[in-house]
Amino acid sequence: MKFTKILIANRGEIAIRIIRAAKELKIETVAVYSEVDSDALHTRIADEAVCIGPAPSRDSYLNITRIISAAEITGAKAIHPGYGFLAENPEFAEICESCGIIFIGPDPKHIRAMGDKIRAKNTMNQAGIPGIPGSDGAIESLALVKKASEEIGYPVMLKAASGGGGKGMRIARNDEELESGYRIAQAEAKAAFGDGRIYIEKYIARPRHIEVQILGDNYGNVIALGERECSIQRRHQKLLEESPAPGIDHKLRQKLLKNAIKAAQSIQYRSAGTIEFLLDENKNFYFMEMNTRIQVEHPVTEMVTGIDLLKEQIQIALGEKLTLGQNEVELRGNAIECRINAENPDRNFVPMPGRISFFHMPQGLGIRFDTHIFAGYNIPSHYDSLIGKLICHGSSRQEAIARMRHALDEIVIEGIPTTIPFHKKIMDNKKFIKGDISTHFIEEM
To answer: Is 332 a catalytic residue?
Structure first.
């Protein structure tokens, strides 16, 4: 089914990013907003805007009934969920379909299958994708957890079956830590996801978090658009990403891409998605999870490939074939993304919403800033603290770092604390400059 109007079921910079892609495709857009977002930038640049409720997410951006109603009254025949909120909610995708609205994303069955980490792991094992040694499914009791840990060997990682964002995860190095970690992880998982199931994996020391961007269409075509380094995190939340990943040679890159394509083909995946791997210190990689949505860090891939991922995603939803084949994908130079959050790094990254009194955007060759903020904008306390993504591209990693340094110096956001000073420290860090990176990078700074 074709469509000429898209409703964006999201806010912030990703809503603006979708609107821009749709405009280039000559597709009209509908913005939805909560009462606190009435003056937000995405409401101003969309063709139409509809208020869907009060500030709390449950009453607005997570309220499926109100979002579907907004699509129906505006005549939008497609909905793009962006990332977060309802992006990986299979029930929302199914409701869209039942209402005759195209969900710009994968099939609900793929969202459901990959959202369950145990099911995803087993599916990929069957497809021959290497996985981290661990339990075959959820472990129902502490006694069975202890037995599995003895078989795998300490240290182990306890993980929530429906997890994400670091919730429901605990490392255990002995029986005592296992007992307390199991109870805490189970309680966290139940509170965050409504699903207290826990599984167990071998804990990999100083791993790297490497993800591969894939696109799949409705005709069985799947391509991989290089890899992204996502290891610099705090509390399992990414702070900085880059592409290509430092230290990944051509041979290893081809193995990663081949396995990512194989993983997507094994479930006949369509739309944009990422296959995520852990890479150990011996350059062995293991499937970790699949994200069935556009990622926050998608711009670094766009910068090194020149491919507009949002436009490709929309065109796939329109029933069109991919516009290029794997042999046409070429990585040019290096790109780095710094996530700029309204947080105070000196106070354990506590969110600091408030009014932006002055804003100056950095400029120059190879510099891109995806944001929804402006001078006078009031950052609400109800949503994620991300206020922009600074992306710099260079012909080499050294040039990308140099451009990021001066872009971080040029950007001015006054009125609130941000993570900009922290990113400056990363750019000057000797280990980062050398590419000596792991998921423990922040702890070791």
So the answer is: no
